[in-house]
Amino acid sequence: MKNLKITVNGVAYDVQVEEVGEGAAAAPVAAPAAPAPAPKAAAPAPAATGGEPVNSPMPGTVLDVKVKAGDSVKSGDTLIVLEAMKMENAIVAPKDAKVVAVHVTKGQTVESGSALVSLG
Questions:
Q1: In 3D, which of 104, 95, 106 has the Cα closest to residue 72?
Q2: How many CB atoms lie within 10 A of CB 41?
Q3: Does the 52-119 domain belong in CATH 2.40.50.100?
Q4: Quick check: 23 pLDDT over 60?
Q5: Which of 43, 78, 82, 111 is the most buried (most CB within 10 A)?
Q6: Where do the domains of the chain lie?
């Protein structure tokens, strides 16, 4: 028996494999162990900015960051473009405000409720 650790799509599995003679197919002896927990996506909190956070309404990947700290935005302006379930979603400013901080970067994965931008 050989104990092997196999990673598939970033998920690690511990398996046992039995070596058999020539002409016979090798088969797993035991079912894969429970996968190791997947690493959590970064969920940055607003770092003492004093601003009101604009949170992600869903888990997804940041496709574009349309603002930077110091920018003035109007209600309805696009702050972040978030991809979720193969759809692009514009995360918009809920009110006229100034961008105090941007908490995400392009390509970052976020969870639902993660702070994206802080407005003041």
A1: 95
A2: 13
A3: yes
A4: no
A5: 82
A6: 1-38, 52-119
